[in-house]
Amino acid sequence: MDKFSDKDTAARPKNDRAFLSRLELKPVPDLTDHIIFWFSAVAGVALDLWSKSAVFKFLEDRHTDGITVLNGFLQIVWAENTGAAFGVAAGKQRFLMIVSAISLIVIILLFLFGSRKARLFYLALAFFAAGISGNLHDRLFNDGRVRDFIDFIYWPGKHWPAFNVADSLLCTAVGIILILNFTGSLYQKPRQSQK
After folding, report:
1. What is the mean pLDDT of the chain?
2. Is residue 148 flagged as an active site residue?
């Protein structure tokens, strides 16, 4: 005799639905969300890695550590960072690699299984994924050092720490999420059912 009776088998789908609703599982992102996320993430990584490679080759070919783009405002420089933003955790490359890998996994899981959000939120997640991936690539394949080249002078003699495209993508992602939070448009309005 089977472990479950016919009565139990009939009741199981209803119980499964109740269990899933208690977990508050949401549907996975739709096709448009996937296109936005994956295209933006891949394009962001490609732009970051290409720009680093092109700029460092340009500087190396000219045997210089930097050139002025806008006098007193913007320079392109050869800089390598062994830490995170603003040099935090400098020299702790293995720790930073682990944190980056975990962060990337969390971002992808949040995209795939998080509750439904505005499409701009998915774009922000893609920028996070691209920024993390670009800098993680450098940590893995550039002796633990992240290549930075944008040197912004915000006051005479005062330089913002050098950064790269990946860092710009990370900051843009934070900005998008802050705007969505402050405007109350982080969550998508539910689609109206047609009668």
Report:
1. 86
2. yes
